[in-house]
Amino acid sequence: STKIPFRLNQNQALLTFEDEEVAQRLIKMGKHTVNLDNKIADVRVKPFTLEMGIKFELHVTISGKKINVSEVPELSIPEDWMRDKLELNFYKSKQGGGGEVANVSYNKQSRTAVITFVRPGAANAFVRCTEHPFVVHGKTYRLSVSPHTSAHFEKFQVYCGVSKKTILLKGIQETEEDEESVQDMIEIHFQKPSNSGGEIEKIKYVSKGVACVCFEE
Questions:
Q1: Where is the NID domain (predicted)?
Q2: I need a surface site. Which of 44, 78, 106, 174 has the fewest CB within 10 A?
Q3: What whole-number distance in Å separates Cα of residue 35 and Cα of residue 114?
Q4: Are 77 and 120 in a shared domain?
């Protein structure tokens, strides 16, 4: 399920009722007089809507034929030679992977390369390998090796959430009582049918600062 955040500001409360008819009735009334610590407070009831957002699924695929290579040493040899040496190096790999190479894409400026093998699954042996020896002119260098991944998005959707069972209370006056006590008083008031209320599933009141409340779609 998707979790959608909502910013609840100071002196505000969110109430979610079991019955959406209760919430809609309270919203139509607009203002309510609530007894908080023997003080009468006029609070405003607003419909609850979430800000517009975007949700999507990110799918990442690890290639079985390609690997990324970085930290290729800077050598005074032509780029074609470097490509050939990289191809030979991974063709003759002693680490159980590798094999015939279909293509070497080498970037001298960034000192990186992408090695593409002919055989599917040939790259799998390098998934747990972070370094690979590279011998040139009798000197051994260490290449950094990592899996080649591709990513794509699916189920890209724009949403604007509306909860018909939830109301937003604004203008709650500050009292000397602690946050939990005030929250209990608000809950008692809006649970009473005589106050046009009903059974409350969840409530969150913020007396100071800001709270982030998450709703599940």
A1: 13-101, 113-202
A2: 78
A3: 70
A4: yes
HSE-up (13 A, CA, CB side) for residue 38: 1
pLDDT single digits (tens) 34-90: 887 778 888 889 887 776 667 778 888 989 899 999 999 999 899 999 999 999 988
Higher pLDDT, 146 or 176: 146
Give the position of tokens 């602690």.
178
**Residue 173 DSSP class:** P
Residues facing 143 on adjacent strands: 132
CA distances (Å), origin 185, targets 41, 88, 178, 179: 12, 76, 11, 10
Q: What is the pTM of this model?
A: 0.49
Domain range for 109: 58-154
Q: Do the beta carbons of residue 166 and residue 47 sit within 8 Å?
A: no
CA distance 159 to 155: 12
